[in-house]
Amino acid sequence: MSYELSHLEALEAESIFIIREVVAELDKPVLLFSGGKDSAVMLHLAVKAFAPAPLPFPLMHVDTGHNFPEVLQYRDARVAELGARLIVASVQEAIDAGRVAEEKGPRASRNRAQTVPLLEAIEKHQFNAVFGGARRDEEKARAKERVFSFRDEFGQWDPKNQRPELWNLYNARHRRGEHLRVFPLSNWTELDIWQYIDQEKVALPSIYFSHRREVFRRDGMLMAWSPYLQMLPGEEVSTAEVRFRTVGDMTCTACVESTAVSVEQVINEIRASRVTERGASRADDKFSETAMEDRKREGYF
Amino acid sequence: MELLRFATAGSVDDGKSTLIGRLLYDTKSILEDQLQAVERTSKARGDEYVNLALLLDGLKAEREQGITIDVAYRYFSTTKRKFIIADTPGHLQYTRNMVTGASTADLALILVDARKGVLEQTRRHAFIASLLRVPHLVLCINKMDLVGFDQAVFDGIREEFRQFSMKLDVADLTFIPISALGGDNVVSRSDKMPWYQGPTLLHHLENVHIASDRNLIHVRFPVQSVIRPMSAKYHDYRAYAGQVLGGVLRPGDEVMAMPSGFTTRIRSLELAGKPLAEAFPPMSVNVSLAEELDISRGDMLCRPGNPPLVGQDLDAMVCWLSESTTLQPGARLALKHTTRSARAMVKQLHYRLDVNTLHRDEGSAQLKLNEIGRVTLRTTVPLFFDEYRRNRHTGSFILIDEATNATVGAGMINGPAV
């Protein structure tokens, strides 16, 4: 017997340990579930961590109102299958109530606006641990974030004042009103996620695989046409075979041309890809070098 | 495919960022949009060349000041292994970061500038790696191109470091002559140093034997939580959830629960309904026992003839991590060890260790940020522990300031205090 674990087994063991540690030390956790592939994997790990007992915490979706219908369907099916409780924090409601100002113009997105309803929901339900599916390989500000990432009473992240994290000893202590964001997938890469989806047969929304869609080009990216996006002069809608590498708000998530219809084919495309998933599909990070850090400081995922 | 975690230490001048950039680039782990972003920023800053270090500096303050503040984690993989790099800045004030990065590392990579040889900083990094008991140490003698790829320079540095390392506890030490800039002996073998017969850096990272670094002898299973479904279907299900930190567990094995000392057998091992024939580090599993014992979070399962040490008085090395406070005798702190939380009082500070000279300063009254010292602690409840040199997970703890909840200390247990 060699007593060796594969990298996926080692990553799974670490993530399950983290998820269990949160539930043991914090009484009000919630798991952010957008229906995207990372949150699908995180949910799969959470279910494994407590089986055969039911999931010991609710799920939360921060709903921008600009969703891909396929993703909402998937979200609801998964919630029903698990008998889980779903909390929806609505950006539309926050806009209607005047708590968030809607961005204007053809490049308007509700991505940044998600922070307000997210923090409001955390406060309302008094959650003290919020599981997020962010990975350190996604973005350079995330590469420096802790697994147990402390947030003050305003939900803010202070990158220069983070708690050192040693061995597998996580510090969950906080005062009332403060909370921890916990990232069980910190050490996973995009490829690890897909390999794990393949190994565990994790179900995903259909838009992760090749399909025909009306699209247009903007800033070198292929955007899905939707009623939520205003077209700019010169932009033209055409039909293409595409899939999504990430799934977020329809206004800031782009797709890539692809013929991959199975997990295995997606993995082969990722292996051959020369562009990162955020570079290929996220308009929100192109504004500046520190766009993600700026959003995170305010309390974003 | 196995997972290898390694920590890198060194300063900008050693070419550390260039080396990491080279590893990522040559293994095709840097993608076009990342390179373009770095090119844009380099240009905007007026750099004359594409500054690969920008790839590694994530935070605003780091970019503004051109320094690395924090531990950054990087990922790449080859067909043989997946790698996690904990990239830590090398300056003295960042001992805290290197301790953090080294705590989970299988291997530490230390860079030496071939022109400068073994410096104070090299000795400091090697000492921290040995203190944290990183099982494998690699000394990369970099910038060989600037010394004419001269074997005598390499041999001299190797000899000098060997002499120094005899004072340390280093199990496995490897020396590799490289040029990160030219890529010599990083991913591909250099044709400029035919006198070097050893592996390239990547080959070493891919093949160094790490499976036996884990402790497979002493069974240590700290209980994280108890899983009881409370449903009709799983009415009798009761299992202990946790991560194996030592030894190999099998169904049928006799186990002893700490602190009660009661013994029983393992009825089954499983995860999410999948039965397991055995469980070993670092697997996360559910353990069901043949008899119901009173066991809860913070307790530990072990083999009856091979229990951990038990006690409330610890002799430990502590690295102080707080900028705003110091460690002083009499201080009361929260302590986390495996899945057990306690309070601890600092009974005595025996000495402060100079990480550059290894000199013991016995007149020291406190430990400040980045300082390492030997202390005696008394805890409010007994801990089930091992010497850190036997098991890095059951031998380590963190200290937490109860007023601010900040993590202020990292501890490695030498043994029970006498």
TrEMBL record, chain A:
<keyword id="KW-0067">ATP-binding</keyword>
<dbReference type="Pfam" id="PF01507">
    <property type="entry name" value="PAPS_reduct"/>
</dbReference>
<feature type="region of interest" description="Disordered">
    <location>
        <begin position="281"/>
        <end position="301"/>
    </location>
</feature>
<dbReference type="InterPro" id="IPR002500">
    <property type="entry name" value="PAPS_reduct_dom"/>
</dbReference>
<dbReference type="GO" id="GO:0005524">
    <property type="term" value="F:ATP binding"/>
</dbReference>
<feature type="domain" description="Phosphoadenosine phosphosulphate reductase">
    <location>
        <begin position="29"/>
        <end position="254"/>
    </location>
</feature>
<keyword id="KW-0808">Transferase</keyword>
<dbReference type="InterPro" id="IPR050128">
    <property type="entry name" value="Sulfate_adenylyltrnsfr_sub2"/>
</dbReference>
<keyword id="KW-0547">Nucleotide-binding</keyword>
<dbReference type="GO" id="GO:0000103">
    <property type="term" value="P:sulfate assimilation"/>
</dbReference>
<dbReference type="GO" id="GO:0004781">
    <property type="term" value="F:sulfate adenylyltransferase (ATP) activity"/>
</dbReference>
<protein>
    <recommendedName>
        <fullName>Sulfate adenylyltransferase subunit 2</fullName>
        <ecNumber>2.7.7.4</ecNumber>
    </recommendedName>
</protein>
<keyword id="KW-0548">Nucleotidyltransferase</keyword>
<dbReference type="InterPro" id="IPR014729">
    <property type="entry name" value="Rossmann-like_a/b/a_fold"/>
</dbReference>
<comment type="similarity">
    <text>Belongs to the PAPS reductase family. CysD subfamily.</text>
</comment>
<dbReference type="InterPro" id="IPR011784">
    <property type="entry name" value="SO4_adenylTrfase_ssu"/>
</dbReference>
From TrEMBL, chain B:
<dbReference type="GO" id="GO:0006790">
    <property type="term" value="P:sulfur compound metabolic process"/>
</dbReference>
<dbReference type="InterPro" id="IPR031157">
    <property type="entry name" value="G_TR_CS"/>
</dbReference>
<dbReference type="InterPro" id="IPR050100">
    <property type="entry name" value="TRAFAC_GTPase_members"/>
</dbReference>
<keyword id="KW-0342">GTP-binding</keyword>
<dbReference type="InterPro" id="IPR054696">
    <property type="entry name" value="GTP-eEF1A_C"/>
</dbReference>
<keyword id="KW-0067">ATP-binding</keyword>
<keyword id="KW-0808">Transferase</keyword>
<dbReference type="InterPro" id="IPR044138">
    <property type="entry name" value="CysN_II"/>
</dbReference>
<keyword id="KW-0547">Nucleotide-binding</keyword>
<dbReference type="GO" id="GO:0005525">
    <property type="term" value="F:GTP binding"/>
</dbReference>
<dbReference type="InterPro" id="IPR009000">
    <property type="entry name" value="Transl_B-barrel_sf"/>
</dbReference>
<dbReference type="GO" id="GO:0005524">
    <property type="term" value="F:ATP binding"/>
</dbReference>
<protein>
    <recommendedName>
        <fullName>sulfate adenylyltransferase</fullName>
        <ecNumber>2.7.7.4</ecNumber>
    </recommendedName>
</protein>
<dbReference type="InterPro" id="IPR000795">
    <property type="entry name" value="T_Tr_GTP-bd_dom"/>
</dbReference>
<dbReference type="GO" id="GO:0003924">
    <property type="term" value="F:GTPase activity"/>
</dbReference>
<dbReference type="InterPro" id="IPR005225">
    <property type="entry name" value="Small_GTP-bd"/>
</dbReference>
<keyword id="KW-0548">Nucleotidyltransferase</keyword>
<dbReference type="GO" id="GO:0004781">
    <property type="term" value="F:sulfate adenylyltransferase (ATP) activity"/>
</dbReference>
<dbReference type="Pfam" id="PF00009">
    <property type="entry name" value="GTP_EFTU"/>
</dbReference>
<dbReference type="InterPro" id="IPR011779">
    <property type="entry name" value="SO4_adenylTrfase_lsu"/>
</dbReference>
<dbReference type="InterPro" id="IPR044139">
    <property type="entry name" value="CysN_NoDQ_III"/>
</dbReference>
<dbReference type="InterPro" id="IPR041757">
    <property type="entry name" value="CysN_GTP-bd"/>
</dbReference>
